[in-house]
Amino acid sequence: MQNSLFKWTMRVGMAVLIALLPMLLFSLLPIESTQRFLLRHYLAIPFFLVLSLFFILLALYIGKQIAMNSRCRLSSRLLASFLALGLIFFGLLGANAKVLSPLRDIPYLSAPSTIQLQNVTFIYSSTEPGVTLLQGQTEQGDFLSFSIDSGIYARGEAILHSNAATSLSAEIAYLPYSETVVTATFTPISRA
After folding, report:
1. Which secondary structure element, helix H or strand E, spans residue 57, and what is its range?
2. 171: phi > 0 → left, psi -120 to 50 → alpha, else beta; which?
3. Nearest alpha carbon to residue 13 among 57, 59, 66
4. What is the pLDDT of residues 71-83, one digit of tens each?
5. Is the dihedral of CA 5, 10, 11, 13 positive or negative?
6. pTM
7. Lateral strand order in the sheet of 167-175
8. What whole-number distance in Å separates Cα of residue 108 and Cα of residue 174?
9. If we measure between CA atoms, which residue out of 20, 19, 83 comes closest to residue 55?
10. Is pLDDT at 31 greater than 70 in this prediction?
């Protein structure tokens, strides 16, 4: 059983590398930025599905090793147990965020959810390098934040600076589960 689990873990690890190929090839295609942003999410599904499975299988393999090596120190067994639990947690979290959310968004591709935001600002993400966030306030006073691609950012900044506006409002069309912005229509709010 243990040898079989190890073989399956290694096979799935190889599948992770193979699932990475479509994503790499896609990055070379000249596609408009919003389409690229959407397609990237859907081409990444096989990669993240297999990666999540790899994490879970690796956690099971570590669990088997802990059970087989009862002579190890308690601290080593606890550390390995926390590692295995962490792998399971990240495997399930990744599967939910990168696999289930985009799949649940499929019915919304033809009719995305929309929301109107006021006082729109752009900031660079502190947690994801190279990602720009669009932030704004809803009519109810809630603050929302969306990751956007460089094309949407460039359009919003151009409208903000070319119209000498004090702020922007935006109508955002987005996929509700993955919160992927499909389109953003900006309106300058002029100085009074």
Report:
1. helix 45-68
2. beta
3. 57
4. 777 777 888 889 8
5. positive
6. 0.74
7. 143-148, 132-137, 113-124, 167-175, 180-189
8. 9
9. 83
10. no
Two tokens at 119?
Answer: 């006082």
Q: Tokens 């992770």 label which residue?
A: 16
Q: Name, in order, each residue with C-beta under 8 angstroms of 51's C-beta and a sequence gap of 6 or more.
A: 16, 19, 91, 94
> What is the mean predicted confidence (pLDDT) over 20-33?
71
Please classify residue 187 by burial: count the beta carbons closer than 10 Å to its beta carbon, then call 0-12 exposed, 13-18 middle and 19+ buried.
Answer: middle
Sign of the C-alpha dihedral computed for residues 52, 102, 39 and 35 taken in this order: negative
Per cent of the chain over pLDDT 70 is 89
For residue 192, what is the DSSP state? -
Please provide residue 112's backbone torsions phi and psi, each rounded to the nearest 5 degrees.
-70, 160
pLDDT in tens, 81-112: 898 999 999 999 989 988 999 999 999 988 99
> Helix (H, G, I), strand (E, B), or coil: what is residue 174?
strand
Q: At what angle do helices 2-26 and 33-43 cross, to 10 degrees?
A: 170
> What pLDDT does 9 receive?
83
